[in-house]
Design a protein that fits this description.
Elements lengths: L21 E2 L5 E2 L3 H13 L4 E2 L1 H9 L6 H16 L4 E6 L2 E6 L4 E7 H4 L9 E4 L1
Parallel strand pairs: 3-6, 4-7
Antiparallel strand pairs: 1-2, 4-5, 5-6
Length: about 130
Amino acid sequence: MKDFRLPPTPIITGAPQSTTTRVSPQGKVTGQSFREMLGQAVEQNSQKSLTLSRHAMQRVEQRSIALSESDMQRMESALDKAQDKGITDTLIFMNNTAFIVNVPNKVVVTVVDGSEAQESIFTNINGAVIL
């Protein structure tokens, strides 16, 4: 007669999610799971408003480009559409001005006014939005 052995019992390590203590990036102890913290971070990033990089701010000042609050809202709306299409780096052409924008981070990388844009080649973009 052969010896019959039961399969080994799995070893479960760690505490259940509901009682897990986590430390946030700011060093605060929370009772949230990683999944909850990740969801909050993604939601906060999606609510982030459009910003201009230091380089873009310099270009706006050098070229005396005026950006109103409604212009910024129009660009944010265009970014939402670009993001829905899976675009990560886009050219937004608005008011005779070209804006190169990193869509996931909602950051305007550079700005080119219309007179310079006519002879320009734009690289490292995978979509364009004309407003």
